[in-house]
Predict the structure.
Amino acid sequence: MHHKEDSLREEYQSEKRVLEEQEETLLRQRDRGLSELDDMVDKARYYFGDFADDYELQKGIMAVSMIKEELIDTVQHERRSIERQLEETEENYYQGLRQLETDSSE
């Protein structure tokens, strides 16, 4: 009985760890992407600020802002997906424990 519980717990913890690592990686990638986009805007302002038409520069900066929003939205969607997977993993774990209890009481 304990072997099955231990096995179930180890599987749950392993799946949970993988999902948490996926979330951490996703957040690091988001932060790096946002930082790179901000750097790009800063460099554009620095290098082209004196030469570029204000309208064209602002248009480019707006395009980068839209890309940032899309990145944030995509990451939020992916995080929700990971959170759902975490919830399912937890539900399956507790369901498995209840099933083991039911099987052992019969």
Q: What stands out?
A: Residues 16-97 form one domain. The longest helix spans residues 54-105. DSSP finds two helices and no strands in the chain. The chain has a mean pLDDT of 92.
